[in-house]
Amino acid sequence: MGLVASGAACWSGCRRTNQPQQQADGTGDRRQAPIAATVTVGMIADLVRTIGGPHVHVHQIMGAGTDPHLYKASRDDAAAILRADIVFYNGLLLEGKMSELLEQIGRKKRTVAVAERLPAEVLLSAPDAQGHMDPHVWMDVSLWNRVAEVIAEELADFDPVHADDYRAAAQPLRRELERLHQYGQAMMQCVPAAQRVLITSHDAFRYFGRAYQVEVEAVQGISTESEAGLNRINALVDLIVQRKIQAVFVESSVPRQSIEAILKGAASRGHAVVIGGTLYSDAMGPDGTYEGTYVGMMDHNISTIARHLGCDRVPADGFRGWRGEEAA
Fold first, then answer.
1. pLDDT at residue 208, as a whole number
2. C-alpha span between 58 and 50 (Å, rounded)
3. Residue 89 backbone dihedrals phi, psi, to 5 degrees
4. pLDDT, position 99
5. Which residues of the chain have pLDDT under 70?
6. Are 125 and 133 in contact (CB under 8 A)?
7. SS in 3 state form for the chain?
């Protein structure tokens, strides 16, 4: 029996109310238990934890290094979704193999596809997307800042008793994201225009490119299910040699063979190019690390890209060491 079918069978036994549950404390008064929120990817889970605070218990399905395009939900994942009071996911088919399950659950309980709450005019499409929009909206920090507001308002509506707490928690987070976006703009503008070319394993950085004025090229399309063709690899080798690009980048959740093939191709043409670093694209860094937060993930990406593309003013501590003077 498939996961969707087994999830439906589990519904009557696993179901929980869509409203925050109440429990009694030692005085006999009623208080609200934490909301059970199930979240697909770390970039969303980090925001929900920050905004939800003590009022929300977050269960994150996909961890560090996990590719959401290819992830197949387990029975435990389906059960966690069914048990949740509210479910947050990206949408725009990021969670490709889980999309059917998430859509079916959305008919029965509160689910929030956060990227799909953004205005249509800010979304990007891609030639290989068959009419679908690019789901990697978190790569533009200013868009993810809007998602933080979506999450705060969804929690406030779902749990009005703590609405003020959710909105208050979102404010310092949104200010930090605004500064992080400014940091990204400053660091990319520091890179000489001719060197502002980002080559990665798959096409997850198009929002990054638009937000920070970087030309973006990738071996694979917006989904890692697409194949890395020899013609595409050869075309990127031509680009690297012609433009004298010095660095390309691998991703933590995508195999690096295609990028290594590009390095070999460039070497055979007499041009040395290095791997500038590992970027976090579809998943954050390990739990408990700075890179295991959304701010840390994007700070790492911005700082790593800027350093290896030629900016000589990236602070040693990245965003944490930036005071804004570098934007001048």
1. 98
2. 10
3. -145, 170
4. 86
5. 1-32, 126-129, 221-228, 325-328
6. yes
7. CCHHHHHHHHHHHHCCCCCCCEEECCCCCEEECCEEEEECCHHHHHHHHHHHHHHEEEEECCCCCCCCCCCCCCHHHHHHHHHCCEEEECCCCCCHHHHHHHHHHHCCCEEEEHHHHCCHHHCCECCCCCCCECCCHHHCHHHHHHHHHHHHHHHHHHCHHHHHHHHHHHHHHHHHHHHHHHHHHHHHHHCCHHHCEEEEEECCCHHHHHHHCCEEEEEECCCCCCCCCHHHHHHHHHHHHHHCCCEEEEECCCCCHHHHHHHHHHHHCCCCCEEEEEECCCCCCCCCCHHHCHHHHHHHHHHHHHHHHCCCCCCCCHHHHCCCHHHC
Q: How far apart are the first and last CA of the chain?
A: 60
Model pTM? 0.87
pLDDT at 324: 82
CB-hemisphere CA count at 13 Å for 184? 26
92, 140, 131: which is closest to 113 by C-alpha?
Answer: 92
CA distances from residue 36 to 49, 51, 160, 276 in whole angstroms, order as listed: 11, 14, 15, 40
pLDDT at 228: 55
Write down all domains in the chain, each with its CATH number in brackets: 3-180 (3.40.50.1980), 185-327 (3.40.50.1980)
Four-point Cα dihedral 98, 140, 118, 36, nearest 10 = 50
* C-alpha pair distances (Å), 243 with each of 175, 195, 229: 38, 8, 21
